[in-house]
Amino acid sequence: MKISLFFLWLLHFLPLSVINTLGILVGNLAYLVASQRRRVTLTNLALCFPQWSEANCQRIAKKHFQAFATHILSQGMAWFTPLHQMKKIIHYEHFEYLEEALREGPVIILAPHFFGMDTGGICLAADVNLLSLYARHKNLDIDQQIQRHRLRWGRGKMFSRQEGIRPIVRDLKTGWAFYYHPDLDFGPKEYFCGFLHSTSSHCPGLSASE
Questions:
Q1: Domain over 83-188 is classified CATH 3.90.105
Q2: Which pTM was predicted?
Q3: Helix (H) or strand (E) run with residue 13 in it
Q4: Contact criterion met (CB below 8 Å) for 149 and 79
Q5: Under a CB-based contact definition with an 8 Å cutoff, are residues 16 and 74 in contact?
Q6: With the C-alpha atoms ordered 137, 141, 143, 149, is the resulting torsion angle positive or negative?
Q7: Residues near 32 by Cβ (< 8 Å), separated by ≥ 6?
C-alpha cells in the first residue's frame, strides 16, 4: 500500500497532459495483455449496442481502457494536489442550482460510477457538506487511507454500505447533500430489468413519485 501511495504521490507532480499521454500508452498495453477484461468489455458493448460493427466496438473498448488507465494514473492528483491548484483544473457549471437546492431542502446528487467520480466528489466536498456511501475495503489500512484522502478538505462524511442508509437520511435532514452512486451493488435488494438492448442488474435505491 505504501509503495502504491508513493507512486501516486510522484505522479501528481506531472502535468495533466503528461498523465493523459501515459494513460493512453498504458491503456493500449492493457487492452493487448488483459485478454479476459477485453473480452468482457467487447461482450458488453455487443450486447448493449448490437447495431455497432465489430470494429466500432473494438475502437470504443480501446478508448475505455485508455480512460481507465488515465483515471488510475491521475488518482494521485485528486489525493495530493493542493486545493488552489485543483480549482484551476476542475470547474462547475451552474453551481448556483445546487446552492439554491440546498437552501430549499435535502439534496441528492446522482453520481454514477464514471471515471472522475472520485475526483469530482473530493473537490465538491471542499465547497458543500457532502455525504457518500462506499464499499468498505477488507484491508483496514487501505480503507483508512482511502477515507483520509477522500475527506482531506474536511467537509465530507463517508458511510460504509454496512452502516445502512439511516445515517445518510439523518444528515440529509440537517442540510447535507448526498453524493449518491445509483449503481452500487446491494445484493438481494437488486433486481433485473431492461437496459439498452440487454437485461442488467439494478438497485431500486431511489424511486420517483408524483
A1: no
A2: 0.77
A3: none
A4: yes
A5: yes
A6: negative
A7: none
